[in-house]
Design goal:
CATH topology: Rossmann fold
Radius of gyration: 16 Å
Shape: globular
Number of helices: 8
Largest sheet: 7 strands, mixed
CATH architecture: 3-Layer(aba) Sandwich
Helix content: 40-55%
Distance between the termini: 34 Å
Strand order of the largest sheet: 3-2-1-4-5-7-6
CATH superfamily: Vaccinia Virus protein VP39
Structural class: alpha/beta
Bound molecules: S-adenosylmethionine
Length: 220
Amino acid sequence: MITPLEIENYCVHHSKKSDSIFQELAERTLQFAPQVSHMQVGPLEGALLSIITKMISAKRVLEFGTFTGCSSLHFLGALPANGSITTLDRDPKAVSIAREFWDKTGNSNRVESLLGDAKASVQKLLSEISAGTRPHYDLAFIDADKGGYEEYFEASLKLVRTGGVVLVDNLLWEGAVLNPKEKSDFTIHTFNEKRKTDPRVEMVLLPVRDGISICRVLDH
Ligand SMILES: C[S@@+](CC[C@H](N)C(=O)[O-])C[C@H]1O[C@@H](n2cnc3c(N)ncnc32)[C@H](O)[C@@H]1O
């Protein structure tokens, strides 16, 4: 998290309160994976995902990185009754927890969970989109392996309609982008450098949680 904890908490407490299911999921995730439970988007970023989904009247959401389902639950709660989400992950144990929580909402029929390497799943989506057998998405959220970000972003520009939105998480990498040392620091920094001048999107990078960019897809 990039903002001081007190500021984050102040913002959480002065934003719309999230449903109790998110607290239940946070506790379940902490038991399941105590070392990495912070990978969840959390209440503030979750509320941001939700409000963006509503603001663009999204009906179809694509997510890279399901984990235990926190962000997908935020999307599900924001989508209209005929909306749906496709979410990609390779960890069946984490996804089984996500499924438990989708079931609790009574909306698991609106979730398409593709298990396996996201790079393979994305190829399937791309071929279906180009064959016209799968409609375009309105919004994509990239939150899986950072080494795949460039590929997921390029794919998202083909999978999301013009005027839709691509959100990319963890782009401040806990501040390491300021003085990159590790490979992952350079990967994220290079991604940000490229986006700065990418003519295919209108983009803003915000210091929310670990950094999130909002990219509006332009005609390209
Ligand atoms: C940061 S977590 C996602 C958090 C989730 N969006 C949430 O809010 O709870 C990243 C997820 O990406 C998945 N992942 C990492 N590399 C992947 C790959 N190559 N293919 C599919 N999933 C991958 C991991 O299994 C992990 O569950």
